[in-house]
Amino acid sequence: MANPLLSGIRVLDLTRLLPGPFCSFYLAQLGAEVIKLEEPQGGDYARMLAPELFTLVNRGKQSVTLDLRQAQAVELLKKMVLETDVLIESFRPGVMDKLGCGYQILKQINPRLVYAALTGYGQTGPYKDRAGHDMNYCAYAGVLDQTGAADGAPVLSNFQSADLAGGALTCALGILAAVIGARASGQGTLVDVGMLDGTLALQALSLATIRTLGESKARGSDVLSGGLPNYSIYACADGKHVALAALEPKFFFNFCQAVERPDLVAMPLAPGAGGAALREALADLFKTRSRDEWELLLAERDCCVSGIYNPQEALANPQVRARGLIRVEDGKPLSDLPIRFSDTAVAAAGACPALGADTAGVLARLAGIDDIQLAALAASGAI
Protein backbone atom coordinates (compact mmCIF):
# COMPACT_ATOMS: atom_id res chain seq x y z
CA MET A 1 0.00 0.00 0.00
CA ALA A 2 1.26 3.48 -0.86
CA ASN A 3 1.98 5.95 1.91
CA PRO A 4 -1.08 7.98 2.98
CA LEU A 5 -1.14 11.45 1.49
CA LEU A 6 -0.94 13.28 4.82
CA SER A 7 1.67 10.98 6.37
CA GLY A 8 3.88 12.98 8.74
CA ILE A 9 1.20 15.57 9.55
CA ARG A 10 0.28 15.65 13.25
CA VAL A 11 -3.05 17.14 14.37
CA LEU A 12 -4.14 18.06 17.90
CA ASP A 13 -7.95 17.99 17.96
CA LEU A 14 -9.66 19.78 20.86
CA THR A 15 -13.13 19.71 19.27
CA ARG A 16 -16.28 17.91 20.39
CA LEU A 17 -19.58 16.59 19.13
CA LEU A 18 -19.87 16.57 15.30
CA PRO A 19 -18.33 19.31 13.10
CA GLY A 20 -14.76 19.35 14.44
CA PRO A 21 -14.43 15.59 14.90
CA PHE A 22 -15.81 15.03 11.39
CA CYS A 23 -13.20 17.43 10.02
CA SER A 24 -10.32 15.68 11.80
CA PHE A 25 -11.74 12.27 10.82
CA TYR A 26 -11.18 13.17 7.17
CA LEU A 27 -7.63 14.26 7.98
CA ALA A 28 -7.03 10.97 9.79
CA GLN A 29 -8.41 9.03 6.82
CA LEU A 30 -5.92 10.85 4.59
CA GLY A 31 -3.05 9.68 6.77
CA ALA A 32 -2.57 12.42 9.37
CA GLU A 33 -1.84 11.43 12.96
CA VAL A 34 -4.82 12.83 14.88
CA ILE A 35 -4.55 13.13 18.65
CA LYS A 36 -7.90 13.85 20.26
CA LEU A 37 -7.53 15.93 23.43
CA GLU A 38 -10.41 15.38 25.86
CA GLU A 39 -11.36 16.39 29.36
CA PRO A 40 -10.47 13.69 31.92
CA GLN A 41 -14.03 13.58 33.29
CA GLY A 42 -16.19 12.14 30.53
CA GLY A 43 -14.31 13.44 27.51
CA ASP A 44 -16.16 14.47 24.36
CA TYR A 45 -19.87 14.86 25.18
CA ALA A 46 -20.75 12.66 22.20
CA ARG A 47 -19.30 9.63 24.00
CA MET A 48 -22.42 9.62 26.16
CA LEU A 49 -24.96 11.56 24.09
CA ALA A 50 -24.49 9.66 20.80
CA PRO A 51 -21.99 6.79 21.18
CA GLU A 52 -22.53 5.35 17.70
CA LEU A 53 -22.02 8.76 16.12
CA PHE A 54 -18.92 9.23 18.25
CA THR A 55 -17.55 5.93 16.95
CA LEU A 56 -18.20 6.88 13.33
CA VAL A 57 -16.32 10.18 13.42
CA ASN A 58 -13.48 9.36 15.81
CA ARG A 59 -12.04 6.19 14.33
CA GLY A 60 -8.34 6.14 13.60
CA LYS A 61 -7.53 8.75 16.26
CA GLN A 62 -5.68 8.64 19.57
CA SER A 63 -7.23 9.88 22.82
CA VAL A 64 -5.32 11.91 25.39
CA THR A 65 -6.95 13.45 28.46
CA LEU A 66 -5.98 16.98 29.50
CA ASP A 67 -7.76 19.38 31.83
CA LEU A 68 -6.79 22.70 30.30
CA ARG A 69 -8.19 24.54 33.30
CA GLN A 70 -5.03 23.44 35.10
CA ALA A 71 -1.72 25.16 34.40
CA GLN A 72 0.14 21.83 34.26
CA ALA A 73 -2.09 20.62 31.44
CA VAL A 74 -1.62 23.87 29.50
CA GLU A 75 2.16 23.43 29.76
CA LEU A 76 1.81 19.90 28.41
CA LEU A 77 -0.20 21.22 25.48
CA LYS A 78 2.50 23.76 24.72
CA LYS A 79 5.14 21.01 24.66
CA MET A 80 2.99 18.97 22.30
CA VAL A 81 2.49 21.98 20.02
CA LEU A 82 6.26 22.06 19.42
CA GLU A 83 5.88 18.75 17.55
CA THR A 84 2.53 19.52 15.90
CA ASP A 85 1.47 20.77 12.47
CA VAL A 86 -2.23 21.51 13.09
CA LEU A 87 -4.38 22.36 16.11
CA ILE A 88 -8.18 22.41 15.79
CA GLU A 89 -10.48 23.88 18.44
CA SER A 90 -14.17 24.74 18.55
CA PHE A 91 -14.50 26.85 21.68
CA ARG A 92 -16.16 30.23 21.56
CA PRO A 93 -13.77 33.06 20.58
CA GLY A 94 -11.43 34.01 23.40
CA VAL A 95 -11.72 30.82 25.46
CA MET A 96 -8.31 29.48 24.46
CA ASP A 97 -6.78 32.90 25.17
CA LYS A 98 -8.21 32.82 28.70
CA LEU A 99 -6.74 29.36 29.20
CA GLY A 100 -3.33 30.69 28.19
CA CYS A 101 -3.01 28.75 24.95
CA GLY A 102 -4.58 30.89 22.23
CA TYR A 103 -3.14 31.33 18.76
CA GLN A 104 -0.95 34.34 19.57
CA ILE A 105 0.79 32.35 22.32
CA LEU A 106 1.09 29.05 20.48
CA LYS A 107 2.49 30.58 17.29
CA GLN A 108 5.38 31.95 19.34
CA ILE A 109 6.16 28.39 20.39
CA ASN A 110 5.74 26.94 16.89
CA PRO A 111 5.66 29.51 14.06
CA ARG A 112 4.65 26.87 11.48
CA LEU A 113 1.55 25.86 13.44
CA VAL A 114 -1.75 25.89 11.55
CA TYR A 115 -4.36 26.86 14.16
CA ALA A 116 -7.94 26.18 13.04
CA ALA A 117 -10.79 27.77 15.01
CA LEU A 118 -14.12 26.25 13.99
CA THR A 119 -17.03 28.18 15.48
CA GLY A 120 -20.64 28.99 14.73
CA TYR A 121 -20.13 32.60 13.65
CA GLY A 122 -16.40 33.09 13.28
CA GLN A 123 -13.93 35.13 15.33
CA THR A 124 -15.42 38.54 14.49
CA GLY A 125 -18.81 40.19 14.12
CA PRO A 126 -21.75 40.89 16.45
CA TYR A 127 -22.75 37.19 16.68
CA LYS A 128 -19.29 35.80 17.46
CA ASP A 129 -20.07 34.99 21.10
CA ARG A 130 -23.52 33.49 20.48
CA ALA A 131 -24.28 29.85 21.03
CA GLY A 132 -25.69 27.95 18.08
CA HIS A 133 -26.33 24.65 16.36
CA ASP A 134 -26.80 23.46 12.78
CA MET A 135 -30.41 24.69 12.62
CA ASN A 136 -29.42 28.21 13.68
CA TYR A 137 -26.75 28.51 11.00
CA CYS A 138 -29.12 27.13 8.34
CA ALA A 139 -31.75 29.63 9.50
CA TYR A 140 -29.43 32.64 9.21
CA ALA A 141 -27.94 31.43 5.91
CA GLY A 142 -31.34 31.29 4.22
CA VAL A 143 -31.26 27.51 3.86
CA LEU A 144 -34.33 26.77 6.01
CA ASP A 145 -36.33 29.32 4.05
CA GLN A 146 -35.74 27.18 0.96
CA THR A 147 -36.75 23.78 2.40
CA GLY A 148 -40.23 22.28 2.61
CA ALA A 149 -43.36 22.39 0.48
CA ALA A 150 -44.00 25.57 -1.48
CA ASP A 151 -47.18 26.25 0.47
CA GLY A 152 -45.98 25.17 3.91
CA ALA A 153 -43.64 26.10 6.73
CA PRO A 154 -39.87 25.52 6.51
CA VAL A 155 -38.82 21.91 7.12
CA LEU A 156 -35.73 20.89 9.06
CA SER A 157 -33.65 18.32 7.19
CA ASN A 158 -32.22 15.29 8.95
CA PHE A 159 -28.92 16.13 7.22
CA GLN A 160 -26.67 18.54 9.10
CA SER A 161 -25.57 20.66 6.15
CA ALA A 162 -24.16 23.52 8.24
CA ASP A 163 -22.23 21.28 10.62
CA LEU A 164 -20.81 18.98 7.97
CA ALA A 165 -20.53 20.87 4.68
CA GLY A 166 -20.48 24.47 5.90
CA GLY A 167 -18.32 23.65 8.91
CA ALA A 168 -16.32 20.43 8.86
CA LEU A 169 -15.45 20.21 5.17
CA THR A 170 -14.85 23.95 4.84
CA CYS A 171 -12.50 23.74 7.81
CA ALA A 172 -10.67 20.74 6.35
CA LEU A 173 -10.17 22.67 3.09
CA GLY A 174 -8.79 25.66 4.98
CA ILE A 175 -6.45 23.47 7.01
CA LEU A 176 -5.05 21.70 3.96
CA ALA A 177 -4.44 25.00 2.17
CA ALA A 178 -2.70 26.41 5.26
CA VAL A 179 -0.54 23.29 5.70
CA ILE A 180 0.64 23.57 2.08
CA GLY A 181 1.42 27.24 2.68
CA ALA A 182 3.29 26.50 5.93
CA ARG A 183 5.41 23.87 4.22
CA ALA A 184 6.42 26.39 1.57
CA SER A 185 6.99 29.41 3.84
CA GLY A 186 7.63 27.96 7.29
CA GLN A 187 4.85 30.16 8.64
CA GLY A 188 1.53 28.88 9.91
CA THR A 189 -1.69 30.84 10.21
CA LEU A 190 -5.02 31.11 12.00
CA VAL A 191 -7.77 29.42 10.00
CA ASP A 192 -11.01 31.16 11.04
CA VAL A 193 -14.07 29.13 9.97
CA GLY A 194 -17.62 30.14 10.90
CA MET A 195 -20.31 27.59 10.11
CA LEU A 196 -22.72 30.37 9.11
CA ASP A 197 -20.07 31.63 6.67
CA GLY A 198 -19.51 28.20 5.15
CA THR A 199 -23.21 27.48 4.81
CA LEU A 200 -23.99 30.81 3.19
CA ALA A 201 -21.16 30.21 0.71
CA LEU A 202 -22.98 27.04 -0.41
CA GLN A 203 -26.00 29.10 -1.48
CA ALA A 204 -24.71 29.43 -5.05
CA LEU A 205 -28.11 29.03 -6.71
CA SER A 206 -29.83 31.55 -4.45
CA LEU A 207 -27.01 34.04 -4.90
CA ALA A 208 -27.23 33.63 -8.68
CA THR A 209 -30.98 34.26 -8.51
CA ILE A 210 -30.42 37.45 -6.50
CA ARG A 211 -27.79 38.58 -9.00
CA THR A 212 -30.22 37.95 -11.86
CA LEU A 213 -33.50 39.20 -10.39
CA GLY A 214 -32.40 41.41 -7.54
CA GLU A 215 -34.17 39.17 -5.02
CA SER A 216 -34.48 35.54 -4.00
CA LYS A 217 -37.46 33.38 -5.00
CA ALA A 218 -39.86 31.44 -2.82
CA ARG A 219 -39.25 27.72 -2.29
CA GLY A 220 -40.60 25.54 -5.06
CA SER A 221 -40.60 28.34 -7.60
CA ASP A 222 -36.98 28.20 -8.69
CA VAL A 223 -35.98 26.07 -11.67
CA LEU A 224 -33.81 23.77 -9.54
CA SER A 225 -36.03 23.63 -6.45
CA GLY A 226 -39.03 21.86 -7.91
CA GLY A 227 -40.40 24.73 -9.98
CA LEU A 228 -40.10 22.84 -13.26
CA PRO A 229 -42.33 19.78 -13.78
CA ASN A 230 -39.44 17.87 -15.36
CA TYR A 231 -37.23 18.56 -12.33
CA SER A 232 -39.39 17.51 -9.42
CA ILE A 233 -40.49 14.73 -7.05
CA TYR A 234 -43.45 12.46 -7.76
CA ALA A 235 -45.39 9.90 -5.74
CA CYS A 236 -45.63 6.32 -7.05
CA ALA A 237 -48.34 3.65 -6.81
CA ASP A 238 -46.80 2.18 -3.64
CA GLY A 239 -46.59 5.51 -1.81
CA LYS A 240 -42.86 5.81 -2.38
CA HIS A 241 -41.36 8.54 -4.52
CA VAL A 242 -39.06 9.11 -7.47
CA ALA A 243 -36.88 12.05 -8.42
CA LEU A 244 -37.35 13.14 -12.01
CA ALA A 245 -34.35 15.30 -12.94
CA ALA A 246 -34.65 15.37 -16.72
CA LEU A 247 -33.58 19.00 -16.82
CA GLU A 248 -31.98 19.05 -20.26
CA PRO A 249 -34.35 18.57 -23.24
CA LYS A 250 -32.54 15.43 -24.42
CA PHE A 251 -33.13 13.70 -21.09
CA PHE A 252 -36.80 14.67 -20.98
CA PHE A 253 -37.20 13.44 -24.57
CA ASN A 254 -35.59 10.11 -23.59
CA PHE A 255 -37.99 9.86 -20.65
CA CYS A 256 -41.06 10.49 -22.80
CA GLN A 257 -39.90 7.87 -25.29
CA ALA A 258 -39.24 5.34 -22.53
CA VAL A 259 -42.72 5.73 -21.01
CA GLU A 260 -44.35 5.80 -24.47
CA ARG A 261 -45.76 9.28 -23.97
CA PRO A 262 -44.39 11.39 -26.84
CA ASP A 263 -47.31 13.77 -26.31
CA LEU A 264 -45.66 15.06 -23.12
CA VAL A 265 -42.82 16.58 -25.14
CA ALA A 266 -45.18 19.07 -26.74
CA MET A 267 -46.69 20.30 -23.46
CA PRO A 268 -45.52 23.65 -22.04
CA LEU A 269 -42.42 23.07 -19.91
CA ALA A 270 -42.35 26.06 -17.58
CA PRO A 271 -42.17 26.75 -13.85
CA GLY A 272 -45.27 27.50 -11.83
CA ALA A 273 -48.68 27.77 -13.48
CA GLY A 274 -47.20 27.61 -16.96
CA GLY A 275 -46.22 23.99 -16.43
CA ALA A 276 -49.24 22.93 -14.37
CA ALA A 277 -50.73 20.71 -17.07
CA LEU A 278 -47.47 18.81 -17.58
CA ARG A 279 -46.97 18.45 -13.82
CA GLU A 280 -50.46 16.98 -13.44
CA ALA A 281 -49.89 14.58 -16.33
CA LEU A 282 -46.59 13.43 -14.83
CA ALA A 283 -48.15 13.00 -11.39
CA ASP A 284 -50.87 10.76 -12.86
CA LEU A 285 -48.31 8.81 -14.86
CA PHE A 286 -46.00 8.05 -11.94
CA LYS A 287 -48.92 6.76 -9.85
CA THR A 288 -49.37 3.89 -12.32
CA ARG A 289 -46.26 1.98 -11.16
CA SER A 290 -44.30 1.40 -7.98
CA ARG A 291 -41.01 3.14 -7.32
CA ASP A 292 -38.98 0.00 -8.04
CA GLU A 293 -40.92 -0.69 -11.24
CA TRP A 294 -40.11 2.80 -12.48
CA GLU A 295 -36.45 2.30 -11.67
CA LEU A 296 -36.36 -1.03 -13.48
CA LEU A 297 -38.03 0.47 -16.54
CA LEU A 298 -35.91 3.63 -16.73
CA ALA A 299 -32.53 2.57 -15.36
CA GLU A 300 -30.86 2.24 -18.77
CA ARG A 301 -32.82 4.91 -20.66
CA ASP A 302 -30.55 7.87 -19.86
CA CYS A 303 -33.30 10.10 -18.49
CA CYS A 304 -32.18 11.03 -14.94
CA VAL A 305 -34.87 9.26 -12.92
CA SER A 306 -34.01 7.71 -9.56
CA GLY A 307 -35.97 6.20 -6.73
CA ILE A 308 -35.90 8.14 -3.47
CA TYR A 309 -34.32 5.84 -0.89
CA ASN A 310 -34.31 6.01 2.88
CA PRO A 311 -30.82 5.91 4.47
CA GLN A 312 -30.96 2.17 5.12
CA GLU A 313 -31.89 1.47 1.51
CA ALA A 314 -29.06 3.76 0.37
CA LEU A 315 -26.53 1.51 2.10
CA ALA A 316 -27.65 -1.42 -0.08
CA ASN A 317 -27.54 0.55 -3.33
CA PRO A 318 -25.43 -1.44 -5.84
CA GLN A 319 -23.50 1.70 -6.84
CA VAL A 320 -22.66 2.41 -3.21
CA ARG A 321 -21.55 -1.19 -2.74
CA ALA A 322 -19.47 -1.18 -5.91
CA ARG A 323 -17.60 1.92 -4.79
CA GLY A 324 -16.90 0.46 -1.35
CA LEU A 325 -18.31 3.48 0.44
CA ILE A 326 -19.75 1.48 3.30
CA ARG A 327 -18.35 -1.58 5.04
CA VAL A 328 -19.77 -3.66 7.86
CA GLU A 329 -17.91 -4.32 11.08
CA ASP A 330 -19.45 -6.28 13.95
CA GLY A 331 -22.73 -6.20 12.06
CA LYS A 332 -22.82 -2.39 11.89
CA PRO A 333 -22.17 -0.08 8.92
CA LEU A 334 -19.09 2.13 8.80
CA SER A 335 -18.25 4.80 6.25
CA ASP A 336 -14.73 5.41 4.96
CA LEU A 337 -13.18 8.24 2.98
CA PRO A 338 -15.38 8.87 -0.11
CA ILE A 339 -12.43 9.82 -2.32
CA ARG A 340 -10.40 7.55 -4.59
CA PHE A 341 -6.84 8.29 -5.73
CA SER A 342 -5.27 6.69 -8.78
CA ASP A 343 -1.86 6.00 -7.24
CA THR A 344 -2.54 6.03 -3.51
CA ALA A 345 -4.49 3.45 -1.57
CA VAL A 346 -6.11 4.81 1.58
CA ALA A 347 -6.46 2.35 4.44
CA ALA A 348 -9.75 1.94 6.26
CA ALA A 349 -10.00 3.91 9.48
CA GLY A 350 -8.73 2.24 12.61
CA ALA A 351 -10.55 1.63 15.85
CA CYS A 352 -12.26 4.31 17.92
CA PRO A 353 -10.12 5.10 21.00
CA ALA A 354 -11.28 4.64 24.58
CA LEU A 355 -11.12 7.81 26.68
CA GLY A 356 -7.48 8.54 27.53
CA ALA A 357 -6.23 5.30 26.00
CA ASP A 358 -3.16 6.98 24.52
CA THR A 359 -2.37 9.54 27.22
CA ALA A 360 0.75 7.85 28.59
CA GLY A 361 2.28 7.01 25.23
CA VAL A 362 1.62 10.36 23.57
CA LEU A 363 2.85 12.42 26.53
CA ALA A 364 5.99 10.34 26.78
CA ARG A 365 6.66 10.76 23.07
CA LEU A 366 5.75 14.44 22.61
CA ALA A 367 6.24 15.98 26.07
CA GLY A 368 8.98 13.76 27.57
CA ILE A 369 6.82 12.69 30.53
CA ASP A 370 8.07 9.63 32.46
CA ASP A 371 6.01 7.24 34.60
CA ILE A 372 6.65 9.13 37.85
CA GLN A 373 5.58 12.44 36.32
CA LEU A 374 2.60 10.73 34.72
CA ALA A 375 1.41 9.42 38.08
CA ALA A 376 1.75 12.88 39.64
CA LEU A 377 -0.20 14.49 36.80
CA ALA A 378 -2.94 11.90 37.13
CA ALA A 379 -3.13 12.44 40.89
CA SER A 380 -3.53 16.19 40.38
CA GLY A 381 -6.32 15.71 37.86
CA ALA A 382 -4.38 17.46 35.08
CA ILE A 383 -4.68 14.30 32.97
UniProtKB/TrEMBL annotation:
InterPro entries: CoA-transferase_III, CoA-Trfase_fam_III, CoA-Trfase_III_dom3_sf, CoA-Trfase_III_dom_1_sf. Signal peptide: none annotated. It holds the Pfam family CoA_transf_3. This is CoA-transferase III family protein. SUPFAM superfamilies: CoA-transferase family III (CaiB/BaiF). It comes from the Bacteria.
